[in-house]
Structure formats: structure tokens, C-alpha cells
Amino acid sequence: MTLGGDSLEVAIRLAFVRGEEGSRFCLQTDLAVQGICGLSGSSGAGKTSLLRCIAGLPVPVTRRRSAEIERFRVALGEWVWQDADTRVPTHLRQIGMVFQDSRLFEHLSVEANLQFALNRSRCKLRSEEFNECLHACSVDSLLDRSPQSLSGGEIQRVALVRALAAKPRLLLLDEPLSALDQSSRRSILTWLKEYLATCAIPVIISSHQTEELAVVAQQMIYMQKGRATLQKNSAKGTTEPTLVHEGASSASLHGHMSSFDKNTGLSAIVVGSHSLKMAGEMGSPGQPVQITVSPAEVAIARRPVEKSSILNQLPVRLVQTFARRNDLTLLKLELDDGQLLFAEVTGYSMRQLGLQTGSRCYALVGKIELTLL
């Protein structure tokens, strides 16, 4: 999918007091978003505050103090939503938004909630588009239900369809699938990527599951203590882990399925000039895949290890190190085709293996997660 459609420009610097302790928080952004953009960061980093600012909603301040605004500009293409002289009300911005608590109308059925969105939209979805959304999100069997009778995952799926039904010019999704199991999240995100490719609108999806965002996002916004940094997400894998909260530096490798060996029960996956093995028959030959690898699943050796239960051993080059807590070091490792892996090792292992920037070594890869594209 290529980037297209209007660009969302967000330039904000404001400070406000939040939380029970009344701590001062500063939100700083200067972004231009196109296509699907992931939004990642630890709890309290400012993800929801950023989405609320874009939507024109107030940030949750405490102590009856208003926010101190130094700079505030939000524009969709040439349409300025907010700056020093302009403020377009939220309901006129043509935004589809899914909040963390979903916010369905409890006095209406699921069908009536969706019809409400259809009735208020300026450019309605065609019936076939609407039916596709219902089916892909497994909402078609819930239409007669009341929100009170739905599970958390069902509520989130309905809220997503409601946001899409309004055919918005911008889609803001705040932890939209957090109540779903991993398989359901991956399935909906994969469909959503294909569906939104036809819409050409900016989309921001907030999630703690950075590796899942990488499946759909062309860009990533990383937030740390209110500061937002935008980076492109490319076929070379996950971007710099220094901008990601602890534990969110999983790598995303791209390749394609090769073959299935009935004798061993293993499928072969081509990544660069190497072949990875995975138990079970997966996909079809030539089918593109994305492989997610957690740093916790990568061990390091200076030479290949013989007679090991670890199926995958990849030659890599150590290109950068990042200090972590408790004498741990995050290693940024480059494959021969430029794709990246990350591993986490102790200071003792660094010294024992004689690792330094530029060292050639082997990444022993344990569990991997495969997404068929």
C-alpha cells in the first residue's frame, strides 16, 4: 500500500496538570501523517491526550487549571481545524474515533448504533462496503443485541464498524482491539489494512502491541513523556528501539513462504538469502509473510551451534547497542539484506563473547510469530 490522500499535520506544544498527584505534563508534537500510522508508547506517555487534541476534545486537566498553550495547529490537507485564529468543532471535523471505552449508546441496539453513524455521515458507505465491515469484524450476528449484553471484545468490534460506517476523512483508534485475543486482533488488523488502502485517509492506531502495529502501519509515532517522534516503518523491520518503551522492541522481518517438508513437518520461509524453519504447514509457496521476533527469543553465539534444538541460526552483524536496566544491553543486529533483529544480553555475556559494534556473530532464534500477508 502506498501513502496517499490528505496529510494530517499536527504541531502542538502545551502543558497541563493531570493525575491525582497533580503533576505537570507537556505534550510536544510536530508531525505530518499519511496513510496508516501506528502510535506506541508506555502508559502515561500521552497517546490518548494526543488523539484528543487532534479530535478537538479537551485534555483531562486537574485542579481547575486550563492548559498552557504555546503552539497548537491541526490541519487535514488544506483544511485547518485549529490554530491561533480557528477552531472547527469536533462534530464538524468528519472524524471516526474509537475510544478505549468504546462509548456505544446503551439505550440503542447494535444495529441502531450503527444506523446512527450512517445517518450522521455526509458521505455514506455503500451497502456492500458496510456489509464487508460487518462480516470482517464479525458484527453481522450481533445486530439485534444490546450493548449491555456484549462482551468487551464484541463492544470493540461494534465501535470499530461504527467509526468506519461514518466514512470519515480521518480515523483515530485508541486501543481499539485490546479486549480481543491475539488471533482476532491480527485478523482484523490485516483486513483493516486492505480495506483502508481503498480509502486514502490518514489513520492513527494506538496500541501497546508494537509488533502488531508493524503489520499494518507505514509510519510509527513513538511517544515518550509527552514527546512524539514520527518514523517510517519499512521492510527493514522495526525502527529504533530507543524510542520505544521497555519490552516493545520486537523485530518485524519480511520474507515469503518456500515449501513444506512432509518428512520433517517443517515449513521453510525465505528471509533475504536465508531460510527459516517453522513447525507445521503454513501458507503457499511464494506467499509474502511478516515474522515477528521478540528480543527475549534471540540468543547470541560467535559461531554456529551444532546439535541444537534451536532451528534457526542467522549470521548477523552487531550495528548498535542500547543500555537497559539491571546490566542488560539491547543489541541491534543486521542481516545480510539490511533487515534488523534485536537481542537482549547481560553485560557478562557481552564481555565473555567479546561483542562490540561491528562484531560478526550468530542470532539463535527461538519462537517466531508468522503473519501471512
Given helix and strand content, the structural type is: alpha+beta
Number of domains: 2
CATH architecture label of the largest domain:
3-Layer(aba) Sandwich
Averaged pLDDT, please? 85
The tally of helices reads 7
Residues in β-strands, percent:
35-45%
- CATH class of the largest domain equals Alpha Beta
CATH topology of the largest domain: Rossmann fold
Tell me the series of helices and strands, N- to C-terminal. EEEHEEEHHHEHEHEEEEEEEEEEHEE
* Helix percentage range: 10-25%
> What does the radius of gyration come to?
23 Å
**What does the main sheet amount to?**
6 strands, mixed
The residue ranges in which pLDDT falls below 50 over 5 or more consecutive positions are: 234-248
Give the overall silhouette: globular
Spell out the CATH superfamily of the largest domain: P-loop containing nucleotide triphosphate hydrolases
Q: Spatial order of the strands in the main sheet?
A: 6-7-8-3-9-10
Distance N to C terminus: 12 Å
Number of strands: 20
Overview of the molecule:
The protein is α+β, with helices and mostly antiparallel strands. The chain has two domains: 8-243, P-loop containing nucleotide triphosphate hydrolases (Rossmann fold, 3-Layer(aba) Sandwich), CATH 3.40.50; 251-372, OB fold (Dihydrolipoamide Acetyltransferase, E2P). The chain is 20% helix and 36% strand. The chain has seven helices and 20 strands. It has helices spanning 47-55, 110-120, 127-136, 152-165, 182-196, 210-216, 347-353; strands at residues 8-18, 23-33, 36-41, 68-76, 79-82, 95-98, 170-174, 203-206, 219-224, 227-232, 251-261, 266-271, 274-279, 288-293, 298-301, 312-323, 328-334, 340-346, 360-365, 369-372. Strands 6-7-8-3-9-10 form a six-stranded mixed β-sheet, with helices on both faces. Helix 2 (110-120) runs parallel beside helix 4 and helix 5 (182-196) runs parallel beside helix 6 (210-216).
